[in-house]
Amino acid sequence: MRLLPTSKNLVGVLPPSPSCPSVLSLFKALPFSFIFLDLEHTPHYPLHRLPDTLNHLGSFPSLVRIPGKNSLDNIQKVLDSGAQNLLIPMINTREEAEKIVHAAKFPPLGSRGCTSSFFNEFGTSEAPFATSLENEKISVGVQIETMEGVRNAKEIAATPGVDWVFLGPVDLASSLGVIESDASFRHEDVQRTLRDVGSIVIEEGKEVGTLITGKEDAQMFDSFKINVALGSSMLLDGSKRFLADVDR
């Protein structure tokens, strides 16, 4: 499923690890809009396992964050594994965004190589090397999480082929120099930056999302359409509440 919301807000969940089938099944059983598979911050997760993970999810929508913007070949590998929704971290300029789109799209929109792989059932489907049709199935999200990216937000969002923009509050807190404060990414400077950049992205006609930790965040960024909740926090908070309830 291509993640391109219009009127409905999409709320996904970020599991502690994309390689644990039981945790993925647990979140898949809940009414989340998608599951966020983070390959950037899970170096122990081998890329060749991604087809199995996606197959386990079946028709349940997923969003895959690739290991890094500087490894454009990872885009090819993730797409050939069957992913339909990409998120690329640390995009700071329009030029970087254009390179991402070029790597993610088949000609004439880009330079993605044609092959038979998991995404087209190894050439057994009716259109084994469909390019224009496959381009329509892929959504490309880019992540702004530095002050350089903030300064170039308008140009990044306006890049043809970029479908939506995700704002990374933790790295923005680091870029703003407030990561070590008690509030961290809830710092007023971070929150203001998220709102300001979000407005810029929306003005460019693109969807925007960020990390949310609860109702307060969801209400504060009610115009953001693609939001991600931390699954590890949910599991910890739920466990803490359970232990508090049964503590005698």
UniProtKB/TrEMBL annotation:
Protein name from the UniProt record: HpcH/HpaI aldolase/citrate lyase domain-containing protein
Signal sequence bounds: none
Source organism: Triparma strigata
InterPro entries recorded: Aldolase/citrate-lyase_domain (IPR005000), HpcH-HpaI_aldolase (IPR050251), Pyrv/PenolPyrv_kinase-like_dom (IPR015813), Pyrv_kinase-like_dom_sf (IPR040442)
Pfam families to which the protein is assigned, alphabetical: HpcH_HpaI (PF03328)
Family: Belongs to the HpcH/HpaI aldolase family.
Domain HpcH/HpaI aldolase/citrate lyase positions: 30-191
Keywords: Lyase, Metal-binding
Lineage of the species this protein comes from: Eukaryota, Sar, Stramenopiles, Ochrophyta, Bolidophyceae
Molecular function terms, GO-annotated: aldehyde-lyase activity; metal ion binding
SUPFAM superfamilies: Phosphoenolpyruvate/pyruvate domain (SSF51621)
Gene Ontology CC annotation, any one: cytoplasm
